[in-house]
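Researcher: I'm preparing a figure for a lab meeting and need a structural model of a single chain. I don't have an experimental structure, so a prediction will have to do for now. The sequence is pasted below. Please return the structure as tokens so I can convert it later.
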Amino acid sequence: MDIIVLGVLEFNSIAVGIKALDGIVKAASVKVIDARTICPGKFVVLFTGNVAAVDASLTAGKEIGEGYIVDELFIPNLHSQI
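Model: Understood. Here is the structure written out token by token.
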């Protein structure tokens, strides 16, 4: 059974969210599951990969989006039935 690792960042600026998305995929080898606006003016990025890659990408996204992050989530061992 594969270990499922999940990272999520929510931004209160679409432009900053897109810029952070660029940094997230360039920081480490992660797969973007979803990246989109969720309501007027907000942007969310959901991505997966191995633990180190997701952690590195999450850190990169937080640095780029500093001051614009609404919420963040890092789950290093998500149950496969979720």
